[in-house]
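Researcher: I've been going back and forth with a colleague about how HEXXH motif domain-containing protein might be arranged in three dimensions. Neither of us has a model we trust, so I'd like an independent prediction. The organism is Streptomyces caelestis, in case that matters for your notes. Sequence below.
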Amino acid sequence: MSSRSLSPRASRQDFWESLAAGTPGPAALAALRTARRNRNLLLLRVAHRCHRADPHWAAAVALLAEVRRVRPEVFAELLGDPEAGAWLARHAPPRAPEDGAAGGTEGEPAAGLARLAAAAALRAGLRFRIRVPVADGTALVLPGLGAVLFPAPGPGAATVLCDGSGAAALRDGERPVPIHGAPAAGPDGAGGWFPVPRLRLGGGAAVRLDTLDPLRLGGPAPLPPRPLSPAEHTGWARRLDGTWRLLTERHPERAGTVAKVLRVLVPLTEEDGTGWRSASFGDATGLAALSPVDDPAELAADLVHETQHSLLYAAMDLVELLDSPPGARAAVPWSDRPRPPAALLQGSSAFLVTAGFWHTELRLGNPAARRPYEHGRRTAATALATLTAHDDWTTEEGRRLLGALRTVLASWEERDRREERDRRPLP
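Model: Here is an independent structure prediction for HEXXH motif domain-containing protein. You can compare it with whatever you and your colleague have in mind.
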């Protein structure tokens, strides 16, 4: 998209300065949310051109169209969900075949869209009936809502329906499994409905704790659903409660940004085998994968870091920031492998904002903030210097963002020098 896509109510420079600081205002956040919804709508249209000849795809599209007609705000929310973004990116090829031609993996695109459509229809309170896939014959996942886990393998699809008596999932020849708000195990205690838990952060903000969505870690291979145990739920509620108190009391602007951007937290475990401290994914803005860190300040820093990644991913939907030659790579402080310009831009922005968090902690008297502040500041400065040296890697708007990031960095350095001078004894 061109730079004209930026909000006309504020100058482009104001937009980039607020993004560089990690605290964009309401107008900027609205523009970024709209950009991501529009991107996902375009992906849906491309996928529709590829798969519309499939009757199962057509049934899912028809249900989504009804959601859009009756509850347009629910449809808009679906398009902004990280789960929809991750799925659409996998099933909307960059170039669509001729109208009416089939494409993609046989059956899978229609099956995945049915999951999204059923979840949206349940949110909208519609009466409907649709066939939805059952992964490995045992798990029927409704993105953002929960999963029906069957006690034994069975048919590869089930019917999700909602009528006057409520919502349920039904496999051929079996009794219906009710779908409702609370967890409900089946009669044998093994299967049943497991909703995605939601945790209140305060002030109306809430996040979903998702261990059920197959694409929750953004990788090429879907993961099996794993219901969150009561102990895990309690642990995350405790961690986020302490972290949110710290953010709102000591970093209120950053707390507001996190609350408006993050929708989904994916708890990481050693069994995931990622080795990540935290992570986010370009196709799933608003999602952060987090390790169970018990220090409130450290977990707050991780939330701020991943929130900034989501903001910049959405900004890259809004306007072109990079125009680098194919294969461009450069060394970065956070990896032993040379990384592309997009990774340098993401890293410089996210590490700078995280350093900003620790800079505030340091000025508020937290002595443990010195080391992570210096690390984040040096890391961001190194990545910024590399991008600045490769002027041909960025567009005009990209250079505006780099300039705003350098301004933030320079303001800290000047403030630190001034405070150091003030601490020196008079001669």
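Researcher: What would you highlight for our discussion?
Model: I'd start with this: The chain has twelve helices and 15 strands. After that, consider the following. Confidence is low (pLDDT under 50) at residues 95-107.
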